[in-house]
Design a protein that fits this description.
The chain has helices at 2-19, 32-59, 67-93, 105-118, 135-140, 142-145, 158-164, 168-196, 200-228, 233-248. The chain has 249 residues and is an all-alpha fold. Helix 2 (32-59) packs antiparallel against helix 3. The longest helix is centred in the last third of the chain and has 29 residues, at 168-196. The protein is elongated. Residues 1-17 form the signal peptide. Pfam families: Ferritin. Belongs to the ferritin family.
């Protein structure tokens, strides 16, 4: 009787994992909640990759032409994609399942907006711009660029004038820093969850990302600090040009 109960318990457990889409003859000590948390992290990396791809394209525009910033953002974009692929492979190795929801730039913009505030990246004590929104990200979303114009406004260059006043380099790096800190926070929480569910493999895999996260956050913060030293508009244009050349070399 006891043997029968044990067999039925094992079969029911396997059936439950199969219903979840798990590979039952591979999965071991891999909880559904951990799988879901990893899926969320993949989505965060894909949102980050899309935002950085959009930002890099912005700096490649002929009317922006800051190729050093484009190079930096492209490298971070590639890293975000590699991280997403790494976790995808890890879930497959653990016998889990991966679902891929639709990724939209507006979701990344919303995450940047939230993170700019929650991580005090635009704190008045060290951010002089006074902005509260990710201007570049909003500009690049479909709703922003597809807005119908009144034919009577064809000679109105207010949008261009507004962008001319942007400090594009520092805006982009502040937004990127916000995303990196959001990603870092997600990874820390994921490592805690893995410990809670006694899953050392997941914890070790996630912690491998954290050292690089610290390096990237530090690098972005250093460049932002350099840019913030140029307070006046004329000074900032020169400072942005010099730092762009450094990043391009």
């Amino acid at each position: 009787m006891i043997l029968y109960i044990l067999v039925m318990f094992t079969l029911l457990g396997s059936s439950s994992q199969q219903d979840l889409g798990f590979v039952r003859h591979v999965s071991q000590n891999f909880h559904e909640k951990i799988n879901s948390k990893l899926e969320q992290q993949i989505l965060s990396f894909h949102n980050q990759e899309l935002a950085l791809r959009a930002y890099a394209s912005y700096f490649g525009r002929a009317d922006v032409n800051l190729l050093g910033f484009k190079k930096l953002l492209t490298g971070l974009r590639d890293r975000a994609l590699d991280n997403a692929l790494s976790i995808t492979t890890f879930i497959n190795d653990r016998g889990g399942r991966v679902r891929f929801p639709v990724v939209q730039l507006k979701d990344a913009c919303n995450e940047i907006t939230k993170s700019l505030t929650s991580y005090e990246i635009l704190h008045p004590s060290f951010a002089a711009s006074g902005r509260t929104q990710p201007h570049i990200c909003n500009f690049l979303t479909k709703s922003a660029v597809s807005k119908k114009r009144n034919p009577a406004d064809d000679n109105d260059n207010s949008d261009d004038d507004t962008r001319d006043n942007w400090r594009a380099g520092i805006y982009a790096l502040e937004d990127t820093l916000a995303l990196e800190k959001s990603i870092n926070n997600g990874l820390i929480n994921l490592a805690k969850e893995a410990t809670k569910f006694s899953d050392p493999q997941t914890r070790d895999h996630v912690e491998n990302f954290l050292d690089k996260q610290v390096e990237v956050i530090q690098k972005l913060a250093e460049i932002i600090t350099k840019l913030r030293r140029y307070q006046q508009d004329d000074e900032y244009i020169l400072g942005e040009y010099l730092i762009n050349n450094e990043l391009e070399s």
